[in-house]
Design brief:
There is one protein chain. Helix 2 packs antiparallel against helix 9 (184-205), helix 9 runs parallel beside helix 13 (329-348) and helix 11 (232-247) runs parallel beside helix 13. The longest helix has 22 residues, at 184-205. It is globular, with a radius of gyration of 20 Å. By secondary structure, the chain is of the alpha/beta class. It has helices spanning 8-14, 16-24, 42-47, 58-75, 84-87, 110-121, 137-141, 160-177, 184-205, 208-215, 232-247, 283-295, 329-348, and strands at 51-56, 79-83, 98-104, 126-131, 144-147, 223-228, 250-255, 272-277, 299-305, 316-321. A five-stranded parallel β-sheet has the order 2-1-3-4-5, with helices on both faces. The protein is built from 13 helices and ten strands. Bound molecules: 5-amino-5-deoxy-1-O-phosphono-D-mannitol. 5-amino-5-deoxy-1-O-phosphono-D-mannitol binds next to helix 4 and helix 11. Catalyzes the first step in hexosamine metabolism, converting fructose-6P into glucosamine-6P using glutamine as a nitrogen source. It is an enzyme of class 2 (transferase). It catalyses: D-fructose 6-phosphate + L-glutamine = D-glucosamine 6-phosphate + L-glutamate.
């Protein structure tokens, strides 16, 4: 039931504050993650983890990419990540103490499931899945299961599954990090930020009318470029995937620092550039990358922290977001990118919930 929404995707975008709350419910205390929520055998396994291998496809792959930044930065735990369709067809080397993690909304993605089955033949410590469908194949076949509580996701374009995956991966990073370099003080900070996440999501989702206005600049375009740095690079990748998937506009994503190495040649006045610009230690670097784009006539669309110093003018459209803790940036900045792709697709008149050539669950290779 779509309620008063026009599409399931739109409904699912607006559900995010609530379902993120559900994903956190009963899993965190005031200052700590409750690690028994990973299962009774989890503690023994987590004690032995030296490294993490993440496998997923599509949007779920993008949440895994963000987790790599978190695991290495906060926890000091090395993390590798690969798309399942590549991983399953090559010879891999498994380091001792590696936890094998799959991420999947459906729990039925053929390549991800094949990768898990293959991993069981290899020398992994154990397998864990972050999954949204109870009793799915991945949930049944993994040693440990952590359910995202996004509720059924009907739109083919994944939205609330992605943000609840990010929340779940943050909890995983914390329980693993505790056994490595993550202090109790840092954990308390991260958990406090998580408590504020649902209301921050509400606040950012209410920017929808501004995003709608911005979307009008895209409906006649054929190409677009999404830029981010650090953990916002996978967020840019996800923004580009959403746009191409439902509006059929060609969208590429790059880490902003790579522009000079090729993509800058694409930039002209017909190429909208979308940038994700929280106020963090990469902001100044990002700004100088964006100046290079502007010097080539590119029109900029920036989702920026209100204090990041971006101004609206003839060649820059800015949507200001509230300042949020750095640990929440990838989740928060994803929301307006989902809204942007949604509105562009509606303007273009595509079948938003059921885009051409795609299936919700990819159960064949
Ligand atoms: O069910 P899964 O999370 O395993 O699905 C993986 C991808 O097929 C999925 O995320 C796909 O990329 C989405 N349609 C993207 O919006």
């Amino acid at each position: 039931d779509k309620g008063h929404y026009r599409h399931f995707m739109q409904k699912e975008i607006f559900e995010q504050a609530r379902v993120i709350g559900n994903t956190l419910q009963g899993r965190i205390g005031q200052h700590k993650v409750l690690e028994q929520v990973f299962g009774t055998s989890a503690a023994d396994i987590f004690d032995q983890v030296q490294r993490v291998q993440i496998i997923a496809c599509g949007t779920s792959y993008h949440s895994g990419l963000v987790c790599k930044y978190w695991l290495e930065d906060w926890a000091g735990i090395p993390c590798d990540i690969e798309v399942a369709s590549e991983y399953r067809y090559r010879k891999v080397v498994v380091s001792p103490g590696t936890l094998f993690v799959t991420i999947s909304q459906s729990g039925e993605t053929a390549d991800t499931l094949a990768a898990l089955r293959l991993a069981k033949e290899l020398n992994y410590l154990a397998s864990l899945t972050i999954c949204n469908v109870p009793n799915s194949s991945l949930a049944r076949e993994s040693d440990l299961v952590f359910m995202t509580q996004a509720g059924p996701e009907i739109g083919v374009a994944s939205t609330k599954a992605f943000t609840t995956q990010l929340v779940s991966l943050q909890l995983l990073t914390i329980v693993l990090g505790r056994r490595h370099q993550l202090s109790a003080e840092r954990e308390a900070e991260l958990v406090e930020a998580l408590h504020s996440l649902p209301s921050l999501c509400e606040e950012v989702l209410s920017l929808d009318p501004e995003v709608l206005e911005m979307s009008e600049h895209f409906s006649e375009k054929h190409h677009s470029l999404f830029l981010g740095r650090g953990p916002q690079y996978p967020v840019a990748m996800e923004g580009a995937l959403k746009l191409k998937e439902i509006s059929y506009i060609h969208a590429e994503s790059y880490p902003a620092g790579e522009l000079k190495h090729g993509p800058l040649a694409l930039v002209d006045s017909d190429m909208p550039i979308v940038a994700v610009a929280p106020n963090n230690d990469l902001l100044e670097k990002l700004k100088s990358n964006l100046e290079e784009v502007q010097a080539r006539g590119g029109m900029l669309f920036v989702f920026a922290d209100k204090d990041a110093g971006f101004k609206n003018n003839g060649s820059t459209k800015v949507i200001n977001l509230p300042h949020v803790p750095a640990s929440l940036e990838p989740i928060i900045y994803t929301l307006p990118l989902q809204q942007l792709s949604y509105h562009v697709a509606v303007l273009k008149g595509t079948d938003v919930d059921q885009p051409r050539n795609l299936a919700k669950s990819v159960t064949v290779e």
